[in-house]
């Protein structure tokens, strides 16, 4: 545990499905998901209310198969189901750390999780439960990035945390340009104008128009999520 004061009261963490894979080609790395759960648990015990939107790319990518001929709507719904699988796995990992967690889905699957209802989600957060929001927005053609922006705004989050495998937002692709510069802060308008690929454009515009700050950081670094709660210099802050 850290003694430093926390910066946020309520956060929404956006996790990609790929973040759960580790070094595997698909699926869920049990060691990695336990580490993520341990960090979320530590943040929760700091008194921060934590909601999580999780992707499903480690299991299924609807957009990719749509490009190969599958009906896009069908593919997107299959992708939503993949996010529910990831959410249940994360719930189990969190509960193994003695943290109460609830999975809430934008599509009805009553046997395994609750329906997403904003007021109920906020109540869970107020009671100290981690809320895992699955199935995106419940609509095809919308990414889980957009779902994360929407849910963060709905629940009144102080910040949207975008967990990635890089240290933040760069002025060019660091995988292709070894001299790419890392931003400490950058504006939403610059992200859109320079096509910096932080999140999809719809998600970025929603954050900008609703004055929701976005912090992009490297989740693969040890205790990165915990440090993001107490250190303003972690990753890149995207703001107005």
List strands and helices in order, with pairings:
Elements lengths: L9 E6 L14 H16 L3 E6 L7 H6 L4 H24 L5 E5 L8 E2 L2 H9 L3 E5 L9 H12 L3 E6 L20 E3 H6 L7 H9 L4 E5 L5 H7 L5 E4 L1
Parallel strand pairs: 1-2, 1-6, 2-5, 3-4, 3-5, 6-8, 7-9
Antiparallel strand pairs: 8-9
Helix pairs in contact: 1-3, 1-8, 5-7
3D structure, described in words:
By secondary structure, this protein is α/β, with parallel strands linked by helices. The chain has a single domain, classed as Carbamate kinase, CATH 3.40.1160.10. Helices cover 37% and strands 18% of the residues. The chain contains eight helices and nine strands. The chain has helices spanning 30-45, 62-67, 72-95, 118-126, 144-155, 188-193, 201-209, 224-230, and strands at residues 10-15, 49-54, 101-105, 114-115, 130-134, 159-164, 185-187, 214-218, 236-239. Helix 1 (30-45) crosses helix 3 (72-95), helix 1 runs parallel beside helix 8 (224-230) and helix 5 (144-155) runs parallel beside helix 7. The longest helix is centred in the middle third of the chain and has 24 residues, at 72-95. The radius of gyration is 17 Å and the shape is globular. The mean pLDDT is 92.
């Amino acid at each position: 545990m850290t003694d430093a004061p926390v910066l946020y009261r309520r956060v929404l963490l956006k996790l990609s499905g790929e973040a759960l894979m580790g070094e595997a080609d698909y699926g869920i790395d049990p060691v990695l998901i336990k580490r993520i759960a341990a960090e979320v648990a530590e943040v929760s015990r700091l008194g921060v209310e934590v909601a999580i939107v999780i992707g499903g790319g480690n299991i299924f990518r609807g957009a990719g198969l749509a490009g190969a001929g599958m009906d896009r709507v069908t593919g997107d719904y299959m992708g939503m189901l993949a996010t529910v699988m990831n959410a249940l796995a994360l719930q189990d990992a969190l509960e193994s750390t003695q943290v109460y967690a609830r999975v809430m889905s934008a599509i009805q699957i009553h046997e395994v999780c609750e329906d997403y209802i904003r007021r109920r989600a906020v109540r869970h957060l107020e009671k100290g439960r981690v809320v895992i929001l699955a199935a995106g927005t419940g609509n095809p053609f919308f990414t889980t990035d957009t779902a994360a922006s929407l849910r963060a705004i709905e629940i009144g989050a102080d910040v949207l945390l975008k967990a990635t495998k890089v240290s933040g937002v760069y002025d060019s692709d660091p995988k292709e340009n070894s001299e790419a510069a890392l931003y400490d802060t950058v504006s939403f308008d610059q992200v859109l104008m320079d096509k910096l690929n932080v999140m999809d454009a719809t998600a970025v515009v929603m954050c900008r128009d609703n004055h929701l700050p976005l912090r992009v950081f490297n989740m693969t670094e040890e205790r990165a999520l915990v440090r993001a709660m107490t250190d303003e210099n972690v990753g890149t802050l995207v703001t107005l």
